[in-house]
Specification:
Elements: E1 2-6, H1 15-36, E2 44-50, H2 55-68, E3 72-74, E4 81-97, E5 101-116, E6 121-136, H3 147-181
Helix pairs in contact: 1-2
């Protein structure tokens, strides 16, 4: 039985470990991108990362790689060069393995392009995919509830409780106003 889930659905003891794997994959992608594109020292570069469950992980990896090359990096689009990274997917797949526990596959896929907004030029650098496989001691399947599902449940409760509390409070104030006056 194989179970594939998105990064948002990772729960339990292996969720943090998967985030570390996502970070390492993003670092390898950033290094690969910087091998394709040669920048002169102290070049000013803007960075924009979007999409995916954890874009800040990819953003941090690219920031670290760019700064390690001695480049001036900005998250605002105010520099002559812009590196755009679109995070297509971050997946964690589990497959039951009778002897070892669970085989885990962690995958990150993103597309990268280099733009020169002032010149109106863009260069597609490619789609980058990194997959790491390992075996983890996962005893149960990954839960199908996500953090956003829990937030939705809380908002439903808030939507019901808040008006009830306000109405009851208003009724009590009106009741006390007329009762105390007499």
């Amino acid at each position: 039985m194989a179970l594939v889930t998105t990064a948002e659905q990772a729960t339990g003891q292996h969720a943090a470990g998967s985030l570390v794997v996502f970070r390492e994959q993003a670092q390898r992608i950033a290094d690969e991108v910087l091998q394709q594109v040669r920048f002169e020292a102290e070049t000013a570069v803007s960075l924009r990362v979007s999409g995916g469950a954890y874009p800040f992980i990819v953003e941090n990896a690219f920031l670290a790689a760019l700064e390690a090359k001695g480049l001036a990096v900005s998250l605002a689009s105010d520099h002559p060069l812009l590196i755009e990274v679109f995070l297509l997917t971050q997946n964690i797949g589990y497959e039951e393995h009778p002897r070892d526990g669970w085989k885990r596959a962690v995958t990150t896929v993103c597309e990268v392009r280099l733009q020169s907004p002032r010149k109106g030029e863009a260069r597609y650098l490619g789609m980058f995919e990194k997959t790491d496989r390992d075996v983890v001691d996962q005893r149960e399947a990954v839960a199908h509830t996500t953090n956003s599902d829990a937030e939705k449940e809380a908002s439903v409760i808030e939507r019901i409780v808040t008006p009830v509390v306000l109405i009851v409070g208003a009724v009590i104030v009106v009741y006390l106003f007329f009762t105390v006056r007499n």
